[in-house]
Amino acid sequence: MTKTAAVFTTADDSSVAGQELGQQIRRQIDGQPDAVVVFASARYDHTALLHALEETCQPGVLVGSSSAGEFTGKSRAEGSACALAIQSSTMRFAAGLGTGVSLDRAAAARAVVSMFRGVQNSDYPYRTALVMTDALAGHADDLIEQLTVATSGTYEFAGGGAGDDAKFSKTHVFHGKRVLGDAVVALEILSQKPLGIGVQHGWEPASEAYRVTSIEGARILTLDGYPAADVFEQHAEATKQRLDRQDPLPFFLHNIVGIETAAGHRLRVPLAIGSDGSVTCAAEIPAGATVRIMKTSSTSAADAAATAARSAVRGLHGDRPAAALFFDCVATRLRLGDVFGFELNAVRDALGVSDLVGCNTYGQIARADGQFGGFHNCTAVVLALPQ
């Protein structure tokens, strides 16, 4: 049996916010929760919030991250905090932590997995990890690959990159009462029942294909040999849109990069244009990749999120979800504004549960059988927990 509580606060004081979350959890769950996942705006003193939360509800495991928009199935706001508490007789939890992500992903992944209990334990047939990383440390794609190697491919992953209210300055992950940058945290979930992971985006190609002919990490220098900004500018003219090189984000939120793969397009959000005509994206793009400029609509975003939720429910193999975690990109929230609420409602309705918790992230993480795996932007990821 699994009991859950989805809680939310907009309290201004950090300690009060942590206490409010903990008190709501204690009212909804008898005894101590086995695990609590918390997401909190960058405006909070995270250390104070986590100490108050831990003292109030005393969870067995506490993990989470800073965020860029927080929500439950009933509430949504920026500058808030939310949490999902879990108490279960069929799931077992542990928290893994890795540091120095920007320097050595393999070492960080090994450190995370060293705290897992299921690598050498066959008592639980289903192994999943909720992964939150400091996306500003970069190399999230490689980190997911290294976690896959460290677990010998026996774990499924879902999660995202920590946010900071769309400031793109400094992000943190939470491990117990510790607040860390340049780090990755993972909640190991060992289960006697399958969990469900759904992944979907609502974007489609809007341009011809281009070859990434020169790139430095997340900074595209040239496409088909031309400065990347020139290519975006030509696309803007062809589609009768306005691209201001000094303020390109309003254009980029509606015109992102799709990397062609055998499973479909993996998305990257452009953020800025350099004086040399380069375009900096939110995450790395492989050199030599084939890319297209992509388009979407608010309707397709909501439909995609609902599709991800339905996929997650199917992954439960007939069981009903007790609760779910939902991640979508901060760029999606910025693009949709208040319409993002329709996407959240679509996920809640598709799941059929109100114990839904999540946040807007700097990239989304998913790796599961039959799903579009890796590190994404502007993509809905849903993790459903069985009853």
State the gist of this model.
With 387 residues, the protein is an alpha+beta fold. It has two domains: 2-200 and 300-386, no CATH class; 204-295, Beta Barrel (Thrombin, subunit H). It contains nine helices and 27 strands.
> Average pLDDT across residues?
94
As a percent range, the share of strand residues is 35-45%
The total tally of domains equals 2
Poorly predicted regions: none
Q: What structural category arises from helix and sheet content?
A: alpha+beta
Query: Which oligomeric form is depicted?
Result: single chain
Q: Tell me, what's the shape? A: globular
Query: Helix content range of the residues, please?
Result: 25-40%
SS elements, strand count: 27
Query: How large, in whole angstroms, is the Cα Rg?
Result: 20 Å
Provide a count of the helices: 9
Summarize the main sheet.
Answer: 9 strands, antiparallel
The first-to-last residue Cα distance is 6 Å
